[in-house]
Write a structure and sequence with these properties.
One of its GO terms (molecular function) is phosphorelay sensor kinase activity. The protein is of the alpha+beta class. The protein contains ten helices and five strands, in the order ααααααααβαββαββ. A hairpin with a 5-residue loop joins β4 and β5.
């Protein structure tokens, strides 16, 4: 509606301007003929459709202007309306649509100049007006295309920011799920193992019953934690607490020993300056592997934890003999732990292998690489 009103105003302005010029001629050449006033009002009318059919509108006003000239009803509208149509084509159409109108204008101007109908200076001035009209329209078209490109780029950047935000949220969900599994599952498994051991050793039936209730509650908490981890992995970042590292391996081994698993810790070599992230990765891999020993081998089992440092690499190996009594039965959700280890090692161009040992027991072996390959 706003564009339609604008086109109506443009036609009204063209008619008014032409009327003023035609009335001004009356002082020189006498009053205008009635057909001139009619032509003045009719020739600009196709401009009302200039946005829908710009090229057709230009040819329509050119045809009406030539017809008016042919019947002696020439008026200033014969110039104003074609110029407005030419501007519209230059602004809204591709340049190829200007070839024919400009060729016609050139032939007409040169013909008038050669025939002496219009002096050469006036012809040159008219050509300059035509060229300026085309340049103004082309400039408006270029600016409109530039603004559209800027808006499209802004919209694309906004979409990319939204996508990056969604990816960041998804990454944070995975991080939370992984950290929850590594921390909560380990502590709950230790609690269940301690409760199982206490229930076996309890002299009082009441104490044994209480310990069995603690063990059952711990198992239930493990199941709930697994379901929550599954939801998080399927799906805002929060404040992160201090994370453990290489210096906390002794405490980790102490917790596992307290759960009834005899663990032998061996450290070979000296760690490099790899940053906190590398230390956290080594700790989490060892924690997950030992947690699986507690859950699936149980109290009474024996395990070996080897951490071997090289200049640009580290190797983690956890072996157990499978001789204990499992604190919790294996569950499909435990694969989250293996997946978490794989994610952590992959971030350091590493590998992780987990599987049964020959005879009995389980083996987890991981390598993290920070530069050159770890020597065999």
């Amino acid at each position: 509606m706003r564009r339609t009103l604008g086109d109506v105003a443009l036609v009204a302005a063209a008619v008014a301007l032409s009327a003023v010029v035609l009335a001004g001629r009356a002082t020189v050449s006498g009053p205008a003929a009635p057909q001139q006033w009619v032509a003045l009002a009719v020739v600009p009318l196709p401009l009302l459709l200039r946005r829908r059919w710009p090229a057709g509108t230009l040819w329509a006003v050119i045809g009406l202007a030539l017809a008016a000239e042919g019947v002696g009803a020439n008026s200033p509208a014969d110039v104003v309306a074609p110029l407005l149509g030419l501007y519209t084509v230059a602004r809204l159409c591709r340049p190829r649509h200007l070839v024919a109108p400009l060729a016609l204008a050139a032939v007409g101007l040169v013909g008038w100049a050669v025939s002496g109908t219009v002096p050469w200076p006036a012809t040159i001035g008219a050509a300059a007006v035509v060229a300026a009209t085309v340049l103004l329209g082309a400039n408006a078209r270029t600016r409109q295309a530039y603004l559209a490109a800027v808006e499209e780029r802004a919209a694309r950047l906004e979409r990319e920011r939204d996508r990056e935000a969604r990816l960041a949220v998804a990454d944070e969900r995975v991080r939370i799920a992984r950290e929850m599994h590594d921390i909560v599952a380990h502590n709950l498994a230790v609690m269940v193992a301690l409760a199982d051991g206490a229930s076996y050793a309890a002299e009082s039936e009441r104490v044994g019953t209480a310990m069995r209730q603690v063990s059952a509650t711990g198992r239930q908490a493990l199941d709930e934690m697994r379901r929550l981890v599954g939801l998080l992995r399927g799906g805002g970042p929060g404040e992160r607490s201090p994370q453990p590292g290489l210096a906390d391996l002794d405490d980790l081994v102490g917790q596992v020993r307290a759960a009834g698993v005899a663990v032998d810790l061996r450290l070979e070599g000296r760690p490099g300056d790899w940053g906190q992230g590398a230390g956290l990765t080594v700790y989490r891999i060892a924690q997950e592997a030992l947690t699986n020993v507690i859950k699936h081998a149980g109290p009474g089992a024996r395990a070996d934890l080897l951490v071997r440092y090289a200049a640009d690499a580290v190797e983690i190996e956890v072996l157990d003999d499978g001789a204990g009594r499992a604190a919790t039965p294996p569950a499909p959700a435990d694969r989250h732990g293996l997946a978490g280890m794989a994610e952590r090692t992959a971030s350091y161009r590493g590998t992780v292998d987990a599987g049964p040992r020959d005879g009995s027991g389980w083996r987890v072996h991981a390598r993290l690489h920070f530069g050159r390959e770890l020597a065999a």
